[in-house]
Amino acid sequence: MLNISQPNIKKDTDQEKYYVLKTLKTPGAGRILARLLLMVGFLFFLFLFLPWQQNIRGTGLVTAFTPQDRPQTVESAIAGRIANWKIREGQFVRQGDTILTLAEVKDKFFDPELLLRLKEQINAKQSSIDSKGEKVEALQDQIRALNEALEVKVEQAENKFLQARLKLTSDSVDYEAEKIRFKNFHNQYERNKNLYDAGNIALTKFQDIESKFQESKMKRISAENKFLEAKAELINARVQITGVNAEYADKISKARSDLNATLAELYDGQGSLAKMRNEYANMEIRNQQYQLIAPQSGFLVRAMKAGLGETIKEGEAVATIMPSTPDIAVEMYVKAMDVPLLSKGRKVRILFDGWPALQFSGWPSVSVGTFGGIVQVIDYVNSTGGEFRILVTPDPNDEEWPAQLRIGSGTKGWVMLENVPIWYEIWRQLNGFPPSLYEEPSQEETLAGKEKEAKK
Question: 302 and 355: one domain?
Answer without folding.
Answer: no
